[in-house]
Amino acid sequence: MLEGIDLSLVNWSRGQFALTAMYHWIFVPLTLGLAIIIAIMETLYVKTGNPEWKRITKFWMTLFGINFAIGVATGIILEFEFGTNWSTYSWFVGDIFGAPLAIEGILAFFMESTFIAIMFFGWNKVSKGFHLTATWLTAIGANLSALWILVANGWMQKPVGMVFNPESARMEMINFWEVLFSPMAVHKFLHTTSSSFVLASIFVIGVSAWFILKGRDIAFARKSIVVAAIFGFMSSIYTVLSGDSSAREIAHHQPMKFAAFEGLYNGSEGAGLVALGLISTSETDPSNENLKDFTMKIEIPNILSYMAFMDWNAFVPGINDLIRGNEKYGVMSATEKIIRGKIAIEKLTAFKEAKKSGQVTVADSLKTEIMSPDFQKNYFNYFGYGYITDTHSLVPSVPLAFYSFHLMVVLGMYFILFFLMALYYTLKGKIHKHKLFLRAAMWTIPLAYIASQSGWVLAEVGRQPWVIQDLMPTMAAVTKISVGAVQVTFWLFAIIFTTLLIAEIKIMMRQIKIGPKSEGGTSHV
Amino acid sequence: MFETFSLITLQQYWWLIVSLLGALFVFLTFVQGGGTLLFTIAKNETEKTLLVNTLGRKWEFTFTTLVTFGGAFFASFPLFYATSFGGAYWVWFAILFSFVIQAVSYEFRKKPANFLGARTYEIFLFINGLLGPLLVGIAVGTFFNGAMFSLDDMNRVTWGTPFRGLEAVLTFHNVALGLAVLFLARVLGLLYFMNSIDNAAIYERSKKHLFYNTIPFLVFFLYFLIALLFMDGFVYNPQSGEVSVESYKYLHNLLAMPINTIMLLIGVVLVLYGIISTLLKGGTKGIWFGGIGTVFTVWALFIVAGFNNTSFYPSVFDLQSSLTIENASSSHFTLTVMSYVSLVVPFVLGYIWIAWKAMNNKQMSTEELEQEHHTY
Fold first, then answer.
1. Neighboring chain A residues of B60 at a CB cutoff of 8 Å
2. Rounded to the nearest 10 degrees, how much is the dihedral formed by the CA atoms of A353, A355, A359, A362?
3. Which domain holds residue B355?
4. pLDDT (tens digit per residue) in A410-438
5. Is residue B309 assigned to a domain?
6. Are B50 and A55 in contact, with CB atoms under 8 Å apart?
7. What's the rounded Cα separation, in Å, for the pair B351 and A114?
């Protein structure tokens, strides 16, 4: 099935997707969060009639516009890349995966792009109420687009609501609501958007801190900090809660990812959570270089079991259990899954051959068998394992998963404290005296981006080798094309996106230096 | 409601929707066409700023329509999405690159410390305006002239040339469509300038260039259309799915679908009326006739490409791999779900219309820009 697929092609294609997705994700969280913060600020303007809030709204709107443009520029590539570089995937799951992308365009992008024009250019053309509605609809449109793309991503992490049709050799949707309301997708959406709100709130506080340190536009900065700190604090609490629910989903449906980001090799009852740890570089299993253990760790007993299954003493399978199997706890071995996957592939091949040779009765009976719930559950659900030749390739990069997860969590906890301090100092009216905090606030901006990117590294690296959990390995999804072609586009993206990022940062910093305008001034000159 | 429809009805319904999105996209390429005319129409910086700002308030519609067109094609005809994007790799990436550099250009052009300088961003707009419509036109040309792919029994694509789609430029009929779309985009861009900018010098120059651009548009478009009537087409047998070549297939399609042919003719007449009436009588309404005419024409051409048992994406490399609305579509269930989603489209068009009217109720002028908080 994988003849002609070169491993370096798979790696370059993955590299290109990672590059473009990570670039896109630099800009998206700020768009999602800042859109809501702006809408809140404009609401305060409309409610109070205080023109200072209008001035504040317009300043943040200018930064929003700069960030939004480059977010759009980097986003278009991602949608089409599913086709250009992952065409086998696009056909295999297009019946399910295409729908959220189309709905994203119809319901979300049009809303966003229509009302953003009014938001930016409609101040003198439409009524206050109409303008405020447009601002909120822009924010809702942006977040709705996140919903649909995360439904698509959630489905890849936990495929639901579908059946495999041997006739078309693809997955076909049978229950839309199951796809839309899949807990994996819902938690992913809530966690991603709330963490984006956190990032945007930190951005607003960090930039405002710079103004206070410079001793200018103090009232503007304090007002901005109050809004961002309250919104950020609420969002950060929700980020923790939704992250916790996401982790539970992962424990149930992606146990290998769960074990990897906890660095858990040998499962146990009452498993402890490694709060801090250093992964060893020495081998614990000479047959597999991925299998490494800790040189140092601080573990909190029983927490992992509770986090995963809401039971202090539950058994949490480790990497070794998932590879070798664990009969006592009903964990199937990887070898057994591979056997089942190969049976599913053989049945499909037999069906295709029967069709080709015109053996209608044989083909029909094979089709009935393949589509039966029993076969789908016991064999087809392991279809992707049929491509796997080495069981150790089922283990993702443990250090990458472990460190990205822990970095994200530690920073997430720090952000809660950060928002509380920002709120406390501002409400006490003393924030200008806390120079150290103000400097820390500025440095917290890059930390928010690191935490946000780490989350996606964990989500995407942690699920390898799967592009669709258990059904399609990444290497089977790639477009057959020369490695050279992908290398050329990879470097083109790297150069263009880096150039545009430099331009964006320079423009953004200049606009911040220019600061909020008095009413009537233009923002570009 | 949609559950009771047959699969072929849903496939046809979705081909109509995807085609309509494609047609709206071609209309909205007036933004791209306008982007190629910045250096021609504007004689000073103030005029250029007027042109950029009037286009800048609409670029996202074009962009969003392109993205939605891609998404809708993915959802309704995923095999086309996988085959064409994965196969004609270089053509699609060239199109996408041109849209990437466009997306930042309006916002970044006049901002201080923009790293590359205003001129670079204007050149980006020019490149997008040139490559976008030209390559999209060439890519759509392969709907009639075929592409070089084959599919295996798992529907995985193999491309027949190392040029991955760029070989389409060797077929003049494709290039003619590309050039027709490019000059149409420029014509629409000029009509849009005349409609939305309150500046006599820009109006007069646009009118002069409207004439210059109409001639190549007509030459290439009429060549494309007339050649289409006489060329072989790709027909499939709905029972067996077998694809074969049929002489005068597209002419047959026009004869077999008279309502569609009338729509095509009305479309062409409206475009011509929009141009000629503007050239002869002046006025600002040319964009509406040209725009509606473009939508009708392109929509009708897409229908000719995909209806009446025609392969909409034929393979001249492996005839039996050719794509049809029947073999490339999503399942009945998915098309049903998407059909319910399509019911919100009139609502979406409604709020776009309200927003457009609210923003364009007055022509843009230098005085207005001076009072704006946010300009490009």
1. 72, 113, 116-117
2. 80
3. 2-230+326-371
4. 999 999 999 999 999 999 988 999 999 99
5. no
6. no
7. 8
Partner residue opposite A76 with nearest CB, options B72, B76, B100: B100
* B277 occurs within a structural domain: no
Measured between beta carbons, the chain B residues lying within 8 angstroms of A125 are 358-359, 361-362
- What the block records as the tokens of A429 is 């009216």
Residue ranges of chain B with per-residue pLDDT less than 50: none
Please indicate, yes or no, if residue B190 is contained in any of the structural domains. yes
pLDDT tens digits, one per residue of B288-332:
999 999 999 999 999 999 999 999 999 999 999 999 999 999 999
Choose among B312, B281, B353: nearest CA to B76.
Answer: B312
Q: How many residues does chain B have?
A: 376
Q: A74 vs B100: CB contact, 8 Å cut-off?
A: yes
DSSP A169: T
Using the 8-state DSSP alphabet, how is residue B48 labeled? H
Tell me, yes or no, whether B304 lies in a domain: no
Contacts 24+ apart (CB under 8 A), A23-26: A23/A74, A23/A493, A23/A497, A23/A501, A24/A71, A24/A74, A24/A75, A24/A77, A24/A78, A25/A452, A25/A453, A25/A456, A26/A74, A26/A449, A26/A453, A26/A501
Name the DSSP letter for residue B331: -
- Tell me which residue has tokens 């007449």: B269
> What tens digit of pLDDT does each residue of A4-34 get?
567 899 999 999 999 999 999 999 999 999 9
HSE (side-chain half, CA atoms, 13 Å) at A478: 26
Please give the single-letter amino acid code of residue A406.
Answer: H
Mutate to test the interface with A, among B17, B25, B66, B74 (most CBs of A within 10 A): B74
CB-CB under 8 Å, B63 with A124? no
Report how far residue B206's alpha carbon sits from residue A72's, in angstroms, rounded to the nearest whole number.
30
Domains in chain B: how many in total? 1
Q: Could you give the CA distance from residue A196 to residue A35 in angstroms, rounded to a whole number?
A: 11
Output the six-digit token pair for B75.
């959802």
Provide the whole-model pTM.
0.93
Do residues B246 and B252 touch, judged by C-beta distance below 8 A?
A: yes
- Across the interface, whether the CB atoms of B103 and A172 are under 8 A apart is answered no
The token pair at A77 is 């590539």
